[in-house]
Amino acid sequence: VVSTQSTGFEAIMSALVHQLVVSLVDDLFGPICAKTMASILLNNQSTMKEIIEHTGFDKRTANQCLCVLIKHRFVRFEEVGEKSRTVRYSVDLAQSLSLPFYPLFVNLVKQQHGDMAEVVLEELLHQGSSYKDSLLEICLVRLQSSVKEKHTVNLESLNSVFEVLMSRGYVEKTQEDLGEDSEPPTKKSRTAGGSMWRVSTHAFYTAMRDTKIVEFIKNRFDEGAGEVVGVILLLNSQIDGDMSQCSSSASYDQILHGLKNKSPNMVPFAKSYLDILTDSEMGIVKLVDEYGGGSFLINFSNFYLEYAKHHICSIVRERFGPKSHRIFSIVLAKRMIEQKQVSELALIPYKDAKEILYTLYTENFLEIQELHRTPDFSPLRTFYLFHVPLEKLTLKLLSVCYKAICNLMTIRKDNLNENSRLVDKSLRADASTLAATQQGIAPEDLEDMLTSSEKQQLGSCMRIVKRLDLGEINILDSILALTHFGNNTSIR
Questions:
Q1: Could you count the other beta carbons within 10 Å of the beta carbon of residue 398?
Q2: Which of 150, 295, 310, 440 can pair with 289 through a Cys bridge, CB separation 3.0 to 4.6 Å?
Q3: Within 10 Å of residue 461's Cβ, how many Cβ atoms?
Q4: Element holding 12 (H helix, E strand)
Q5: Among candidates 388, 393, 385, which has minimal Cα distance to 369?
Q6: Residue 202 and residue 234: Cα distance in Å, rounded?
Q7: Are strands 171-174 and 196-199 parallel, antiparallel or unpaired?
Q8: Can you give the pLDDT at residue 2?
Q9: Which of helix, strand or coil describes residue 370?
Q10: CB contact set of 201 (below 8 Å; sequence gap of 6+)
Q11: Helix H segments across 44-114?
Q12: So what's the pLDDT on residue 188?
């Protein structure tokens, strides 16, 4: 568990998280819901009366905002008090911070299960929660309006896709039945209804974690080692697929059987790869039983640590250069090391190593531990050991990531607002072209609604937005590494 030693830093971190959550809600639902969210975050918990007083909204508007936020699980509620029970609302920060990952969830499902699964998941994320029948009907209309061969899309095929998503754990039942036109629960009322369905962010974090483990092992070892680890993870997902500290153990025979189905040419090398992986100092693959060829499991805790270290080292390389990366990696591996030893191990002149070490120290990537050889605390008789404050550094970098996402969202919003007229005009032109195509009119026969200068300006705007989106995806990868794929919510 990562903890901070400075209450000042905790306050800064909390403010950044709150700012990001409000920005995300503003981007998705608009300023009214964002103001409601900010009001709840202000006091950690708020009653309906406090929300109305702080926002200045009437009760109906506050009700509608809360219904939307509860339906998407960004806000939760509970009744407090024994005699006079009061409903208090609080923000689910972990669920709210998963919002930027929604495009990654959709892309993952598209890669694994195709376009129909993509539309089903996208629509369910858009609604927050929904009944299965109404969800599939909406998806059917969307798909039939965009697919040329409409007979290939029907409710039966969509139902099959939904069953696959259920089996993978990507969608789950929820008893919460709260529509946008309903009122949130109060002392006198409760919404009631049948089971609804929602997206399981937990399952998607698990899937992304497993993908990254295989990629990490392939980069550290080779393709064969990644295949072996992938089989162990596949066996784990078939049993429970949870995000505990370790996977379920898989016997040697089970791994061989899995490799026969997936990569038959890897079977003769399975034992050698397992020996190499279990002997590795990273400790990601563990041997837990030697009977019958052995049983093996994946230690997720060790992977989280190694993946976070790898990501932090990459950040050091990008920011300070290859020499700094080499020195930082040595200090990280040795845990405590003197300045002279760093210079010798890194094969860098003493003067350069000293300058790099103190640059990293001033940027809070390194700290110094003093070991006094005598009681007089003389500097001449004191060892100065450099070490990496991994927990503090993780929080520092995480706060930078959250601030960067806020900045990217602000720049993107300003850029789109400046070109809103052109964007709207382009959307109208696309809609006209689609309608004409459906009527059998060729697109080249239509009059162009945008001038050449407008097309150039719009193209420049879209290129900027695309670069911002790519930057956000890179930052999200860092957040996954630093938050242990959503598993360590204490550092959020």
A1: 21
A2: 295
A3: 18
A4: helix 7-29
A5: 385
A6: 17
A7: antiparallel
A8: 39
A9: strand
A10: 95, 98, 101, 105, 486
A11: 48-55, 59-71, 93-96, 102-113
A12: 42
Flag whether pLDDT at 322 surpasses 90. yes
- Output the CA–CA distances (angstroms, integers) from residue 151 to 9, 123, 258, in the order listed: 58, 21, 37
From first CA to last CA, the distance across the chain in angstroms is 11
User: Which amino acid appears at position 322 of this protein?
Assistant: P
How many H helices and E strands in the chain?
20, 12
Distance CA 380, CA 370 (A): 12
Backbone angles phi, psi at 46, to 5 degrees: -145, 145
365 vs 147, 194, 305, 332, 333, CA distance in Å? 52, 52, 17, 10, 14
| Cα–Cα distance list, 102 to 92, 205, 342, 347, 492 (Å) | 16, 11, 43, 45, 18
Order of all β-strands in the sheet with 129-130: 129-130, 196-199, 171-174
Q: Is 308 helix (H, G, I), strand (E, B) or coil?
A: helix
Residues in the chain: 492
Q: Locate 146 and state its tokens.
A: 């965009």
Residue 299 CA from chain centroid, whole number: 20
Cα 419 from Cα 461, distance rounded (Å): 7
8 A C-beta contact, residue 203 and residue 229: no
Identify which of 104, 47, 102, 46 has the alpha carbon closest to the alpha carbon of residue 72.
102
- Judged on CB neighbours under 10 Å (0-12, 13-18, 19+), 488 is middle
pTM of the full structure: 0.83
Give yes or no for a contact between 336 and 369, defined as CB atoms under 8 angstroms apart.
yes
Element (H, E) at 214: helix 201-220
Say if strands 337-338 and 295-298 run parallel, antiparallel, or are unpaired.
unpaired
The crossing angle, in degrees rounded to 10, of helices 201-220 and 102-113 is 70
- Give the tokens for residue 58: 């009437």
Contacts of 141 (CB under 8 A, 6+ apart): none
Confirm if 252 and 292 have CB atoms less than 8 A apart.
yes
Average pLDDT over every residue of 36-54: 90
Handedness of CA 342, 348, 354, 359 (dihedral sign): negative
Residue 190 pLDDT: 43
For tokens 């607002």, name the residue. 417
pLDDT score for 180:
39
User: Phi and psi dihedrals of 387, rounded to 5?
Assistant: -150, 165
More confident residue, 486 or 407: 407
